[in-house]
């Protein structure tokens, strides 16, 4: 089995082709991509696609590019991204690392939630803005280049024909 048969790679290629073939200016695609990348950096795992679609419709940005940009946070990259965002936010707020709670009361859990949510939210803003800016610049540069490419089709597996005699 070759790597081309894996669904992830095929889906990535199809999304890339879909993005390249959009009949809009590269700036419109880049703005949608930047919006999707920024929303993908927020700690809203699980509803990011809906938020990106809603914001793209509200701000009149490219919806397909925004939805593709959200995939910067996926189950493989989310622990790394959210860990970095938490540490950046915690350092900026000057908070200590949370300790495990011995008592499981409502007040103790609420305090732990704020100790996690506030640094994570600040870190997502601090890291999301440069990621969106870099994504905008790269998309703006690479869309015209990629439109020049000729993307070959992947060969489909041949069917074995049943020959009955």
From TrEMBL:
Pfam families: DUF2062
DUF2062 domain sequence ranges: 10-150
Keyword check for Membrane: yes
Protein species of origin: Malonomonas rubra DSM 5091
Keyword Lyase annotated: no
Protein name listed in UniProt: DUF2062 domain-containing protein
Transmembrane segments: 33-57, 64-84, 120-143
Keyword tags: Membrane, Transmembrane, Transmembrane helix
InterPro entries (UniProt xref): DUF2062 (IPR018639)
């Amino acid at each position: 089995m070759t790597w081309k048969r894996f669904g992830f790679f095929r889906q990535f290629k199809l999304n890339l082709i879909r993005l390249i073939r959009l009949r809009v200016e590269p700036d419109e695609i880049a703005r949608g991509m930047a919006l999707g990348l920024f929303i993908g950096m927020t700690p809203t795992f699980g509803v990011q696609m809906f938020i990106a679609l809603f914001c793209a419709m509200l701000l009149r940005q490219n919806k397909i590019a925004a939805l593709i940009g959200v995939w910067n946070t996926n189950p493989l990259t989310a622990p790394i991204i959210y860990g970095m965002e938490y540490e950046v936010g915690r350092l900026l707020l000057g908070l200590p690392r949370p300790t495990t709670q011995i008592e499981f009361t409502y007040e103790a859990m609420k305090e732990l939630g704020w100790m996690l949510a506030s640094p994570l939210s600040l870190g997502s803003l601090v890291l999301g803005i440069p990621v969106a800016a870099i994504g905008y610049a790269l998309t703006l540069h690479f869309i015209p280049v990629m439109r020049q490419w000729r993307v070959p089709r992947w060969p489909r597996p041949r069917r074995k024909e049943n020959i009955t005699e």
